[in-house]
Amino acid sequence: MAETAKIKIQYYRSQICTPVKHKLVVKGLGFTRMNQIVEREDTPSIRGMVKKIPHLVRIVD
């Protein structure tokens, strides 16, 4: 089977005082605490979610 590409995302800034939609995107990416790094498939939908909240998350190499 072909291995799908992965992307590592770090949640590095607090979601306090952000719109509810941004909080839902953070939760949808699977973050539960600050400075957490999650690994997700590199799909257009995940990239779009990261693009909506670039001030809260960063892509880790």
How would you describe this structure to a colleague?
This protein is globular. The protein is built from two helices and three strands. It has 61 residues and is α+β, with helices and mostly antiparallel strands. The protein has one domain: Ribosomal Protein L30, Chain: A (2-Layer Sandwich), CATH 3.30.1390. The longest helix is centred in the middle third of the chain and has 9 residues.
Order of helices and strands: EHEHE
Give the integer mean of the pLDDT values.
96
By CATH reckoning, the class would read Alpha Beta
Q: By helix and strand content, what is the structural category?
A: alpha+beta
Instruction: Please tell me the CATH architecture by its name.
Output: 2-Layer Sandwich
Unreliable stretches (pLDDT < 50, length at least 5) are none
Query: How many structural domains does the protein architecture include?
Result: 1
Helix content: 25-40%
Biggest sheet descriptor: 3 strands, antiparallel
Number of strands: 3
